[in-house]
From TrEMBL:
Keyword field: Coiled coil
Keyword Coiled coil on entry: yes
Occurrences of domain F-box (ranges): 4-52
A Pfam family that the UniProt record links to this protein: F-box-like
Coiled coil is among the record's keywords: yes
SUPFAM superfamilies: F-box domain (SSF81383)
Source organism: Ziziphus jujuba (Chinese jujube)
InterPro entries: F-box-like_dom_sf, F-box_dom
Name of the featured protein: F-box protein SKIP24 isoform X1
Length: 256
């Protein structure tokens, strides 16, 4: 027996079993309604949508008898959808603010690293010059040609502070700079990791399950659209056929 020749009572029972057993969702019922005029009429039954109202929106007040349950379901669904979208936007703004703050801290660490690196290079250069002065002062006590001796003497006279104490101070400063650079690099890497994590979370937040992710209008010709419609109808009928067999099994078990 063809599925289209089934009586309305049996179709109604199939839909009732699907809705009451949570096998059908509001989306499935909407898909059934576009497959044929008959199923559209049957799927608009007020008792089906009344069940969806009580199960999907239990905290809302009871529906008015003057308005169809499907219309009330649509209004409540739109309200919940708007709240979810608003919450989604707030979450996106918070995450974007976090990303901006992480980026600001990373730029700050980069500037401090550049300053400490420049300071360490200057310290190394001064230490190198002071060591030359120390070597020159030692060389003055050893016989050497007059030209070389004059150059060493000039280097020693240019030093206005004791060489040894200054070298010790600069070496200590070099160690401090090196330690500071290690600390800044670790903080920079940690902040970079937090920034990457925040960007991944932002990407996942930007995917909204209520939005239609399919292409609309571009690149779909009429034949492709007809093929998709036929596939949709076949999948709908398979789903309904499963519910139909469930009804048959229930009836057989009842008779037995």
């Amino acid at each position: 027996m063809a599925m289209t020749s089934l009586p309305d009572e049996l179709w109604t029972r199939i839909l009732e079993i699907g809705v009451q057993s949570r096998g059908f969702t509001y989306k499935d019922l909407c898909c059934l309604s576009i497959s044929s005029r008959r199923l559209r009429r049957l799927s608009n039954d007020d008792s089906l949508w009344s069940h969806f109202l009580s199960s999907d929106f239990p905290l809302y007040p009871s529906a008015s008898p003057l308005v169809s349950s499907k219309s009330i379901y649509k209004l409540r669904f739109e309200k919940v959808r708007e709240k979810r979208i608003a919450a989604q936007r707030r979450a996106l703004l918070r995450k974007e603010s976090q990303i901006a703050e992480h980026s600001r801290k990373i730029r700050e660490f980069e500037n401090r690293l550049a300053e400490e690196t420049s300071k360490m290079k200057a310290t190394l250069s001064e230490v190198s010059n002071l060591r030359k002065v120390r070597e020159a002062s030692v060389a003055l006590n050893v016989w050497q040609p007059e030209v070389v001796r004059g150059r060493h003497k000039e280097l020693v006279e240019q030093s206005v502070v004791p060489v040894e104490s200054r070298v010790n101070t600069l070496e200590m400063e070099f160690k401090v700079c090196k330690q500071q650079i290690l600390v800044l690099k670790k903080a920079y890497n940690d902040e970079k990791q937090r920034l990457d994590t925040a960007k991944e979370e932002l990407s996942s937040l930007k995917y909204h399950p209520l939005q239609n992710q399919e292409l609309v209008g571009g690149g779909l010709d009429e034949s492709h659209a007809n093929i998709k419609t036929k596939k949709l109808k076949r999948s709908i009928y398979v789903l309904v056929f499963e519910q139909f067999f469930a009804v048959v099994i229930v009836r057989c078990e009842t008779k037995m």
